[in-house]
Design goal:
Elements: E1 16-19, E2 28-35, E3 38-42, E4 47-53, E5 59-65, E6 68-74, E7 79-82, E8 88-92, E9 96-104, H1 105-116, E10 128-131, H2 134-149, H3 155-172, H4 189-201, H5 209-215, H6 220-231, H7 235-253, H8 258-264, H9 270-281, H10 285-291
Antiparallel strand pairs: 1-2, 2-9, 3-8, 4-7, 4-9, 5-6, 5-8, 7-10
Helix pairs in contact: 1-3, 2-3, 5-6, 7-10, 8-9
Length: 292
């Protein structure tokens, strides 16, 4: 897992609202900031940076990259992209509420090679200022929602989002815009059963997308696509369904506490199980047990 040291020019702790620093998320760091009017420098040697504006009230911002100056009003949904090793200076005249996503350059290169068949040594991310990209905005807001929930059990979901984000960046915001290598027909039955057996045997543990993909010797991106093509659901959704089904069995067949059942099924708390259980079944674990 890539560690993300704090930048010496990063915003002060008082402006940092939330961070995924201790969430165990691989290959990306997601942070939410609310900063007063001011200025600052940003320079990350090994991470590409996406900044997504969150405030509905526009603010005027000036940015300088590689001697080029960009000025304009940033409103909710506007974003900027700064490639690794590229210094950025910015100043703004109002309160700046934004989401910062840092993706390791190693991860982007890996996705380019494994998912898109590209020569990663020639990969060049384009700097962008005050653009709109609905796909990046949607993924950013989903990552923010996970960050706000503080849910450490959804690693598979976060890794899937990271993969989709990386592929989109490579397709839309690099000097070369490749067509992906397509796999037809979903996972072969033997490989699919191997993955499903692994999930069933490890429900109590944290299951990562890379664990599942490595079982069948595929990139995470292509594995996710083929898994969904074969089963009609994503790996994260399938895992959640299986954990709920295991919880149902234990609720009916044992008198163990709901908190104990939650941990046994891979949820991090009683409340986490209850929330997911209600979303999938329309009832609570307690009510389900009473009516079984």
């Amino acid at each position: 897992m890539m560690n993300f040291p704090s930048s010496p020019d990063a915003a002060t702790d008082s402006s940092l609202i939330l961070s995924s620093q201790n969430q165990g998320w691989r290959n990306l760091l997601v942070e939410q900031f609310r900063e007063p009017p001011g200025e600052g420098n940003c320079h990350h040697s090994h991470e590409h940076t996406i900044c997504l504006a969150l405030d509905t009230r526009p603010i005027r911002m000036l940015q300088i990259r590689e001697g080029k100056t960009y000025t304009g009003l940033y409103a909710k949904g506007d974003l900027s992209i700064t490639p690794a090793q590229m210094p950025l200076f910015a100043c703004w005249d109002g309160e700046d509420h934004h989401l910062k996503i840092r993706l390791t350059s190693h991860f982007i290169q890996q996705i380019a090679r494994e998912a898109l068949g590209m020569d990663s040594d020639r990969l060049e991310l384009l700097p962008q200022a005050r653009i709109r990209d609905p796909h990046i905005e949607a993924i950013g807001l989903m990552l923010l929602a996970e960050l706000q929930q503080g849910n450490t059990a959804n690693t598979l979901y976060v890794e899937s989002l990271a993969n989709v984000l990386a592929v989109h960046l490579i397709r839309q915001h690099t000097t070369d815009r490749p067509q992906p290598v397509m796999y037809e027909g979903g996972l072969p039955q033997r490989q699919l059963l191997q993955v499903l057996d692994y999930i069933d045997a490890h429900l109590q543990q944290e299951i990562k997308l890379t664990d599942l993909a490595s079982l069948v010797g595929m990139s995470e991106f292509h594995f996710g696509r083929q898994f969904k093509q074969g089963l009609g659901t994503t790996p994260h959704q399938y895992l959640l369904q299986q954990r709920i089904e295991r919880a149902k069995q234990l609720l009916k067949q044992s008198d163990r506490s709901i908190s104990d059942i939650a941990l046994t099924c891979g949820f991090n708390s009683h409340s986490h199980l209850s929330k997911q259980f209600r979303q999938l079944t329309g009832t609570t674990p307690k009510a389900y047990r009473l009516n079984s």
